[in-house]
């Protein structure tokens, strides 16, 4: 493969002569020069992501920190107000509610993970059509969240929605799910579990299949029943996947927005479905309170960071416990 | 040589020779398998029901949508809905815009990501690991935290209501993709690259002739996953795109949902939503093996 490279004329490295001396007689100077050429090319190759990171992540963070300390409508001058926005957040009932709702939605995470672990165990058995099942359970994962939210909004309709029509088969009169403070959050949780199930199942399945069969056989020979084998072998072996899924789900869950905005465009009855990001978007782009919205977004960023770090800490302790 | 080990997904469960009572063992296992199968079938029905219902609603007449008792299968499928939606809503422009955004970003972004992954995995560069960890730390920053400053930046450039704010920031590469390509390249022996250098190949040549063909499968898998993510993106597009003809498909259907719901035209909403997820569904069904394997790999490596 490399041979063909010599056929073409090598373009000159920036600032240096083409570097292709005989390998035999290389002085230290030559090697240093070659390294410098390599450094230059490597720097050029990583330049795009580094520049992108500086321009579109790091600079915006710095800007956000400053903007959160100002009163600002996005167009006019930024008036420095110190920590006023953060102080206001403490007494903003809507923010409290949005925060509460956002955490409430995370109840769905352990439920979804438990269900998908069971599903993965089921799919791990020798069952006809396993591949087909895996594909079917994965379809909601790849489907557009906007389209899914539209369908589910309609499915939750009290009078002619799919959910209540199915419940009617069992003689249950379902509520008007999304118009009811008590049911709107559970409704959104159910949808989110439905959508994410295939993904976590897939990861669990891969992890279970990497459990050495000999380990399970030995346990079976020693008289461990199926539940004991699950608890003592499979659970610890899939722990890294659980950790990964919890972290990614919490990070994604803290940013829940699309389904809220589509299924409950006004934030639900009595603000009962609004999430933090939904409230940030509303404050920033509807009421032009950019400074205040940025302060909320900083709080959200810190929250995500802290949760991630705590989980990394917990995981470290867990993995020591296994060793 | 270039093949990394993927988790064997379709491996049959290991057959276990068991000493004690083989017949009762197999019988109870068979019963358990049958029960599992039934549960999986019911679960599949629950997974597909909303999508099937979407399709069936899109083919109903407006009257059938609200009929009680419900109509499950429309008497005369209204295929016309799939014809009239193109003229009654900006679905075609939505399609094109989504294609432009997702296509440009993934093609250019995959290239910049692959170059960076090559440098980070195989070339000498001072502070290489610090750079890599710095890039990775960007993954912890939630988009909502930086969306307002980004919006202000792009509005100063007069890019609001164009596709540019959705395209330009992503052309600089995708950290997740860099991470996996770098991982993939770890399996390439350094001696191969040294040999190519001695043969006089320049670094761009090494990348183009040697590295790129090697990491093609990994790029393809990440490319598809990334394309899906951008195609399905909703938050950034609704912030920037106001004019209906300039919106991406997801924003178009979300607005249809509001607009046509007041006219109770649910068949049209469902038809448009179905069309919005159809391309990705088709891509998934064609490449499902590769997609599922690379997703499984993502999880086990993460």
Automatic annotation (TrEMBL), chain A:
It is a multi-pass membrane protein. The chain crosses the membrane at residues 41-69, 103-123, 135-155, 187-207, 237-257, 290-310. Residues 1-24 are annotated as: Disordered. Residues 98-311 form the ABC transmembrane type-1 domain. One of its GO terms (cellular component) is plasma membrane. It is found in: Cell membrane. This is Sugar ABC transporter permease. It comes from Cellulomonas algicola. The lineage of its organism: Bacteria, Bacillati, Actinomycetota, Actinomycetes, Micrococcales.
Automatic annotation (TrEMBL), chain B:
It is found in: Cell membrane. GO terms for biological process: transmembrane transport. Keywords: Cell membrane, Membrane, Transmembrane, Transmembrane helix, Transport. SUPFAM superfamilies: MetI-like. Residues 1-29 are annotated as: Disordered. Belongs to the binding-protein-dependent transport system permease family. This is Sugar ABC transporter permease.
